[in-house]
Design brief:
Oligomer: single chain
Number of strands: 16
Shape: globular
Strand content: 15-25%
CATH topology of the largest domain: Rossmann fold
CATH architecture of the largest domain: 3-Layer(aba) Sandwich
Strand order of the largest sheet: 6-7-8-3-9-10
Bound molecules: adenosine-5'-diphosphate, magnesium ion
Length: 406
Amino acid sequence: MPDNEEIIRLEEVFKIFGPQPRGRAFDLARSGMHKNDVQQQSGHVVGLSNVSFAIKKGEIFVVMGLSGSGKSTAIRTVNKLHDVTHGHVWVDGVDVQTLEGKELQAFRREKMGMVFQHFALFPHRNVIDNVAYGLKVQKVSRNEREEAALRALRLVGLEPYARNATNELSGGMQQRVGLARALASDPDILLMDEAFSALDPLIRRQMQDELMAIQSEVHKTILFITHDLNEALRIGDRVCIMKDGVVVQIGTPEQILTEPATGYVAEFVQDVDQGRVIKVEEVMTAADAIQLSAGFDEVQRAVAASPARLVVDDAGNCCGLITRSDVERVSSQGTPSLANAMRSDVATVNGSQTLNDIYGEAGKGLPIAVLDSNGRLIGRVDPTSVLEELGRVEALTDAFEREVYM
Ligand SMILES: Nc1ncnc2c1ncn2[C@@H]1O[C@H](COP(=O)(O)OP(=O)(O)O)[C@@H](O)[C@H]1O
Ligand SMILES: [Mg+2]
């Protein structure tokens, strides 16, 4: 199939909430009136106003907008959780609005997997039963559905947890179970509504990376909703920006960053394009520190695995840094101990600082310790990830400048 084949299309879709959705409120919205004015004049809420977009097979299409902009309403028209007031929704050539009853159920089950912000797992059932549940409902045989569930769990890296109860898992892991559940029936389309929004920044970033890695294996079509522009630009092949029920711009992350269609989009991206809004907590990784009390053997093993490690004391406070070369130096001369190898002048930041704040420090090439408000170590930032992250944004801006000025 050609890459650019369309699989989902919204065509001039309006969704009005209220007792008479096709009455005056619709006429007002259709005339282009802002949703606040429509509400004032008709008492009806405009969910979507003349929304059109087409999603290509195999792409990650991200709908981004602030709360209330109509993102969830849009995604719900795709699986007909909402009827539309006007317009058409096509999925793989089917006019979704014509589906009813069993046909609609089968269409939802076979064509699409859904992942939401709240995992909605059965807490007392084990992981594999949760993942296989949709297939059980479809009366797939036990062997077959367990096989499919294990395949999906392997994709999200949770195969070893197949027999654990879901309520024993962390939030990030539960969301991976949710993703595995959506993947288990091998649908063409994944609908993900704020799927990562409830997760901590660190876990969230890992999930974004994982989703992209999984996508490169399974090549689904993913309609992904988020209110976070960084997330949208990071994972989207194309991004659709919504405001007050209206589509403001659709484009690649490059286009959104460098050719914002309106002042509203420009305002959104003005910080992003300078790397200023990327926070430390978004790029930090697990601290993976070693204890101050560690023996020298352990220290040697630790730096063999990664060339620089942070050191914490019993209270969880960061007290220093050891590098592979420091450890090699003290093991060949002097007394081989952690205390002798350790530097105490480790750079520290807090999670809400931005990458620009630590750019200079990152230039020194050593990991930077991330501390919480009590001074305890919660993560580390490696210079390469700072440079990579800023570099990505710079590369986008550069590409744009080349296009414009050459
Ligand atoms: N069932 C409903 N009844 C009335 N208004 C609704 C309903 N669902 C959504 N809305 C309104 O539609 C608009 C878009 O909502 P929604 O799509 O949930 O936004 P988002 O997902 O972008 O936060 C909001 O103004 C919201 O209050
Ligand atoms: Mg929503």
